[in-house]
Amino acid sequence: MVTPAAHREAAAYLRSTHGMSERRACRVLQADRTSVRYEATRPDDTALRDRLKALAHERRRFGYRRLHVLLRREGHAVNKKRVQRIYREEKLTVRRRGGRKRALGERRPMEIPTTANQRWSLDFVSDQMTDGRRFRILAVVDDCTRGR
């Protein structure tokens, strides 16, 4: 599907380069003349834009939904979708939190224990009895004598 903006652009191109009338260009493109003639009239939102930027700078962890609530409390009669559009246009995305810190460098291979009681491993093991009751066990194993 071709957008109305693309129809407007194509009609303007046909009219300027080929000298076509608006009617003929719209007929060729199979576009509605009213959508080709349409001019967007958006209200001036510089005050709202500035206030949104200031709030987003103050409260970096707030997304557009919470900022919308703050704007409404301040008396701006503004729609949530409009706040979202301005928020996106100004690239005011919430800063991503840092991920898990990973160890740098190569890991040493784990040493194999040579004598008993040198290294122990432990793990929780859970199971279920036939009547449905569950139980957990802490299994502690000596790594040297484990396989014997």
Radius of gyration: 33 Å
Q: What proportion of the residues form beta strands (DSSP E)?
A: 5-15%
Q: Which shape, going by the Cα principal axes?
A: elongated
Order of SSEs, N→C?
A: HHHHHHEE
Detail the poorly predicted runs: none
Calculate the terminal CA-CA distance, rounded to whole Å.
71 Å
Question: In what order do the strands lie side by side in the largest sheet?
Answer: 1-2
Count of DSSP-assigned helices: 6
How would the blueprint of this fold be written?
Blueprint: H1 4-18, H2 22-29, H3 33-37, H4 46-58, H5 64-73, H6 80-89, E1 120-128, E2 134-142
Antiparallel strand pairs: 1-2
Helix pairs in contact: 1-2, 4-5, 5-6
How would you portray this structure in words?
The chain is 41% helix and 12% strand. The chain is elongated and about 95 Å long. The chain is of the alpha+beta class. Strands 1-2 form a two-stranded antiparallel sheet. Among the domains are: 4-37; 46-89. It contains six helices and two strands. α1 (4-18) crosses α2, α4 (46-58) packs across α5 (64-73) and α5 crosses α6. The model has no long low-confidence stretch (mean pLDDT 90).
Looking at this protein, list some descriptive labels.
148 residues; alpha+beta; two-stranded antiparallel ribbon; 2 strands
